[in-house]
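Mods, move this if it's the wrong board.
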Amino acid sequence: MKCVVVGSGPSGANAALTLLRRGREVELWDPGLDEPPLPCPEAGFHELKGQLADPQEYFLGRRFEALLPAGAGELLRYPPSRNFLLSREHPLWPYDGDEFLPQASFARGGLGAGWGANAVSYDDDDLRDWPIGLADLTESYQEACRRLPIAGPEDELSGYFPGVVVNQPPVRLNRHDSDLLAAYGRRARAIQAATGLYLARARIAAVTTPGDARACTDCGRCLWGCPTGSLYHPGQTTLDACRAYPGFSYKPGRLVLSLESRDGRVTALRFLDPDSRLHATTPCEAVFLAAGALQTGAIFLRTLQNDSRFMAGAQAVDRTQSVLDTRVIKLPYVYLAQVGRQPETRQFQFNRLIVAHRKTRSGWPSHCHGELLSLNTLLYHTLIESIPFGSRLGMQAFARLRAALGVVTYFLPDRPAYDNGLSIVPDPDSPTGDRLRVHYRDDAAKEDLARGILADTRRALLRLGCLPWQPQWAPPGAGIHYAGTVPMGTGHRCTDATGKANAYDNLYICDGAAFPTLPSKSITLNLIAHAIRVATLARV
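Not the wrong board. Structure tokens:
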């Protein structure tokens, strides 16, 4: 049987590889837009500025797009030189409205082309409202960790990430991080008892083994693209593994819009060629949707709306079952012991430490996950301008503060809320003929959850000699951890516990669309484990 996998991100690439290892013939469909090659791969962040012909355009953009406006609530924004993210001005931008600000990617590797590389797993507490538990995912986590490099420690938090199998040394800490972790170690029990806060080294999907050709060189260019290939990229590593099988073919240039069906089975895929803007339809035997929770939800919703069984009456479908997103809060701080110190010039750019706020909660997982980032090779214009001394004095003050600055970023968990979901809005000006509208309103109880987390984190930071600033709430959608549009559950808008769509016998949901709730922990390793499980259990 030929299986069509839609999407080349973490879920799709790993579902395809699993099916190939089962001996199935696989086509992987994808818009497949390519990023430009990385310049000067041997250069670090600071050396690169001197080697580029036009460093302003590369780092800041032709129209200074990389400069963050005041109040943007961001410290990391992918630069214009990275085009794996679809811009809102692009003709194929799929969304309508501005209440929810989603990110989209039609690149090879999808959003996995530029993720933050944090690799942690769910546990039974995170999965409390799922029809499956950790035991159902254990083998898939183990296989995921064989496919990915996982750099990290074995420490007291390891038990809360039971699916993680570390196979690389941890990423190197800078002085800010190592001093802060040492200070925490001296006060750990008191801080845990008073605040529920744990601080530990991050688990990162990166090659760090000395002597490996892909090992991280601390070049500080993670945000601009890893020049050594150390960071896991599904559109490279896993797609290359798929190409080793004679039964595999990669079909770029195909933006799947919907599926045709008959008698409870999918019979064909309808797609758009992004270059020619032509629509076409191709027969299929089995389909694995892994286009990202929002696009998978849109494909599934269009399919239901074109199915005569669901076009009228009580079964009519106007939106998806739900939509989930991890709301993001950033808490900046100054580590007073680091004020005036010289910042290091070469270091891993993404976070090297994580925080876990762990308390028993009603209706929420006990683990709220965060990333602690001490600032290094970033663009600091917004921070400098926020110092109330003017640009010149602001630059001087910032030079003294730079090595001391850090930010704790929390990703709040999410659960289904009434009337949240996706709907399809007709739009004759769109090449697809419609737009996707995200209906999303935060659970009011999430604000209480956030207040408690922030209060405890402030207390912990003060005990560690840090001065916290005012928190910054990112808008809905900024977390890029989307889920729940076709969740495991009952009814024709859901899947069963194996990821098979309840409405169709040969349609499988491989990505976060199938997650019935969204834990706080970073999502990507869990997406991969889910995709491996779905592709392993699929009746194909």
